[in-house]
Amino acid sequence: MLQFKRPGNWLFIVPWIAFIPWYGMLIAMLICWASQGHPLYWFMHTEQFPIYISDIGATNLRPLFISCAGWQGLGYVVTIALEFFQRSGYLPFQLKNNDSSISDSTSYAEKLHSGKYLMPPYYTKHERNLIFAAFVLGGIGQLALLFCSIFSTALYHRVHIAMVSVFVVFMFLSVCCLIAEYFLMGRHYASVHPLASPHFNPQSSEKKLQSKL
Predict the structure, then answer these.
(1) How many structural domains compose the chain?
(2) Is residue 170 part of a domain?
(3) Among 27, 123, 137, 139, which has the minimal tally of Cβ within 10 Å of its Cβ?
(4) Where are the transmembrane segments (predicted)?
């Protein structure tokens, strides 16, 4: 009989708990709109296609839209906070100034195998700061989405559009920070990989690249 290995922790369930209700809400709202005969609401343009979720959320389904927007926003920032916690041992709002960067692959390997961290710890403060920036930017973006659901497009169209713009910009920046963090983490983690060259030093490579530029 096939047996699955028990995970080291169950924090990976948090994003599922956050986002399954959100996608369930999207599907439910589209089903409701379809069951009504694909109507064009009074505040919509007559030639508008496709319909936006904000349009459906401005109807009697507005309480569902607000609650699920707040829930998935909370889930997003909690997910990033948990990654920060697993890589550092403390939460983002407990940011410490005395954290030391890892100067060589040997000390990082010792830190990695210490069992103190639930995920590979960050190699330099740049990676830590990128996770923290993603947390802050994502929090602002998700608040904008919550306000977007509160200020419906039917009653507060200009405010609604402004909040959508803030949401898109700050979530884009948050995702960019996460991509940069994972890029740096992968590059530095390669230096302690068993197959890595003993002469590979990511920090010296960065200095050489900067000198060429």
Answers:
(1) 1
(2) yes
(3) 27
(4) 12-36, 64-85, 130-155, 161-184
